[in-house]
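the four lines:
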Amino acid sequence: MRAGRRIPEATVARLPVYLRVLHEAAEERTATVSSEDLASRAGVNAAQVRKDLSHLGSYGTRGIGYNVVYLVREINRVLGVGDDRRVAIVGIGNLGHALAGYGGFVSRGFRVVAAFDADPSKVGSRLGDLTVLPMSDLGDAVSEKGVTMALITTPAHAAQGVADALVAAGVASLLNFAPTTLQVPEGVVLRQVDLGVELQILSFYEQRAGRDVRDEATLARA
Amino acid sequence: MRAGRRIPEATVARLPVYLRVLHEAAEERTATVSSEDLASRAGVNAAQVRKDLSHLGSYGTRGIGYNVVYLVREINRVLGVGDDRRVAIVGIGNLGHALAGYGGFVSRGFRVVAAFDADPSKVGSRLGDLTVLPMSDLGDAVSEKGVTMALITTPAHAAQGVADALVAAGVASLLNFAPTTLQVPEGVVLRQVDLGVELQILSFYEQRAGRDVRDEATLARA
DNA sequence: GTTTGTGAACCACTTCACAGCC
DNA sequence: GGCTGTGAAGTGGTTCACAAAC
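prediction for all of em together
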């Protein structure tokens, strides 16, 4: 598969993991990595790595491996990260609060620039260097601050309404943490993270682990 | 495929989603659901639902659908949920704090019974009705409280050490939120949730959404 | 008529194995 | 000799389509 054609979904889900591993390698001043290195650090098969990377183009050198800095740049480009993306959080409960302060977003090129809550007692409170805004400000704040992605951390019953409001405001990428299935119009990208689901999946494999030994390393959402 | 043989990984990942939908249906006093109902509420294809459920056995009635209460019981049994599972959280930063109070766990049969942190200034602080314990208490507390699953919410650099300690203490199911790949011995079940990865995947599809329209609804873990 | 359960067809992803390049 | 890039083979998952059950 030569240069960037349609990239398989499964590959897209692994690219961020490679990126993480490559950053670690870069910190250790490693100039090049082999598919074998990358694979073992990412917890996948080496052939997998090579095939995944071949979807982006031919960025390796036979006999040598992949140039770390160069590969980081290419993956960032493919994922559309790098120029910092503006993120809003709707629903400032425990989880929303935690995500607003989560360092793992900033270090990956995302910046939380707005926070909203429907509860008047929360509106106006500080959240790091942000002020929690009322839902009625959503439309204006989204366009003023150039928000392109939003995290929904409301209770389940409020999530669909919030999603509708976000879509109406022009936000086209939603990451939903509320434990409910959302409907969005075509063209809007939606991903679901349900922490309860993760524990239940874990529970299944733990239960099995007694009889047949199973070791499941999985990526998120993946 | 008659009655419970080996259940495909992809099916296991969807069962908790069906469970969530079934609980919603139960609240609405719906006695039976068709695969079509279930599918549309879960965001998948109806044939998928039927095939998934057929792996558990034949619990539907042709011409009628599936009995909600009965199906909930069966899925819970297969997943090994129901008898409340004891969970520990290691790393009481923003995220650990939020997860300790997350209602979505309790309502799904999981109970957070212990919290640990390596930072002496956090040890002894209250967290709901728990007290944060030092890492040195991990072994004892795990066995006393019957912990079988743990959430790792430490910084990345501490995660492997914590995983090792948990495994040594006899915890055989780990859900890792730290953005790093962990190594665990055979027989230990490990799942990875990386919130930064989720945003990066979202970013990729958002970027595409302009040209070709893609709408990606995904379940967690994938 | 409705809806399940399932073989068969299809499609996507993974792994193998090796030619080609350094 | 070492390592990538990739066809080919293998595996697993999804969707179709229909017979069987109600």
